[in-house]
Amino acid sequence: MNGRTMLTSRTYLLTGAALAAVLTLSACTNGTAPNASSESSSTKAASAAFAPADVTFAQMMIPHHEQAVEMSDDILAKDGIDQRILDLATQIKAAQQPEIKQLKAWLTDWGTDETSTQGMDGMSGMGDGSDGMMSADDMMALANASGADAGRLYLNQMIVHHEGAVVMAQLELDEGQNVDAKAMASNIVTSQTDEIGVMKDILATL
Description:
- The chain is mainly α.
- It contains six helices and no strands.
- Helix 4 (136-144) runs antiparallel to helix 5 (147-175) and helix 5 (147-175) runs antiparallel to helix 6 (179-205).
- The protein is elongated and about 50 Å long.
């Protein structure tokens, strides 16, 4: 084999090795990136997935929370209220106002709104009077009450209100699909059950 032939053979070998390296690198790159992207997309899809029950939960919990905030604003504006009740009302507002904002954002993401009837029949057991909402007369009674009487009325009404929220949240846990909505529902069950206990303890000492 002369020098020219050896040079040509070496060139072919080097070229082949370089090509193999490029193909291997390309295969690794194309193999891992789509999988990571697919995993991210899958996680987003799971988080965004929702059922009619999730829509119902959000649509019904928004006015429910808004009424709790209104009741709390009412008691916070009165004089002669037990400090424990004032602290509780402040706590309820702090917890439920951000949840109202989040619930509204979910409805927007899901292509519906607060007054849409979409999904209103998607959660069994809703709309049967178990939601704990106060009537107009109930709200007027709280607005007109004063001092210790107002404090007791607020606690009694809010216990019923919280019990309704727990029922609604439990139904979301049983029938909902959206992971974020179910997480909020779980938090509502835990936090509002605890607050019911606190309110009953306060009532027992008034």
